[in-house]
Amino acid sequence: MALADVNLAGFVRKGLNIQLYKNSFFIITTRFLTVVTGFVFWLVAARLYSIENVGLATALFSAATLILQFSTFGLENSIMRFFGSHDKNKVINTSLIVTTVSAFIFGLVYIMIAGIVSPDLGFIQEPLYGTIFLFFVIISSVVMVTGSAFVGLRKAEYALSQNIVLMSRIVFLVPLFFLGAIGILSAIGIAYVLVCILVFYQMRKFVRFAWDVDYGFLQKYKSFFSGNYISNMLYNATYSITPILVLNILGEVAAAKYYIAFTIGCFFFQIPYSVGTSLLVEGSHGESLRKNAFRALGIIYAILIPANIFIYFFGSSVLALFGAQYVESTDLLRIIAFSSFFFAIYALMIPIQNVRMKVRSVLTLNVVLFVLFAGLSCIFLIYFGVVGVGYAMLTTYLIMALIVLGIIKMEGWL
């Protein structure tokens, strides 16, 4: 028994000495914690707030996420791609300033047109609610940029402490109950403020913050930024618009059922995405892409297979924790989870192409992804109800996996 323990400990130490495994371990652990705390957060919200308020809150959160994607200009990937070869201070300061200023502008524009784009969210045009929403968008942009910075620094372990602080959002749900849907959003926003305080304290060891935009850096890599900006915007819009589509087509109750199932299913997508992020960082520091790509695929499927088996048999029990109404989303949850097997192939191709500076290829893939998923979701929602989103997701990522395998074969990887 003791010998087995020694061998296991040695195996773990050896694995963590490989930078890809080490960074992947911390990124996966961090995102797993994010998913678990997110699960608990929405569980508490579903118990405290009406299903209509939960539905509106998920749509608000998705709208804020969509605004953030418009605000980044591709800089979040650039932090991870160029931290290893450029002045870290200039990269982080430029990214923070550009992103937060843009988030303020785009957030303001969204508030002005909210009543037209999504009438159910028109209430954020009231001064109090609009201010809360705008503040949430701005503080979220800071958290997103600084999170990417720690990954780019190969210090993903710092994100663990940030996620522990983020757990405080669950506590804030109780006193903010009187605000309804905005109360749910405010709970996350206050927790983000606490995370920002911690982040700036931690990051001062590695970078110097200043109000300084490096226009030379922006000009030199503008094609990379613009390509990734459009590409990331399309990728994130794929998921951000879905709750709004469900809300507009099927109503608040269906939006809540979809979002809870997606929040749980999100764990399955975080695995390939986390390992892919680590692959981008390691490739940007000169590590072998081919060797690390196959290592990454092994890590991903080693986690996805048992996780899918668990959700197939116990998915309904997990959803039942939120309330009897949410159990109706069991089939949707299973389909989302199964889709992750095909998503994994696509998710590894994106960082590989970014390391190789093949931005046009990344953009093309995400255009196809967006068109397929958005189009199929609109059609399947009408014919199959909320589970139609799952069918759209599975079909989309199956097609994307086949396309990626075709590219890999043409480029001689297989």
TrEMBL record:
Parts of the chain that traverse the membrane: 23-44, 56-75, 96-117, 129-151, 172-201, 258-281, 293-326, 332-350, 362-383, 389-408
InterPro entries: Poly_Biosynth_Transport
Record's GO cellular component terms: plasma membrane
Record's bilayer topology term: Multi-pass membrane protein
Localization in the cell: Cell membrane
Assigned keywords, A-Z: Cell membrane, Membrane, Transmembrane, Transmembrane helix
Recorded superkingdom: Archaea
Xref: PANTHER family: O-ANTIGEN TRANSPORTER-RELATED, PST FAMILY PREDICTED COLANIC ACID TRANSPORTER
Protein name: Oligosaccharide repeat unit transporter
Lineage start: Archaea, Methanobacteriati, Methanobacteriota, Stenosarchaea group, Methanomicrobia
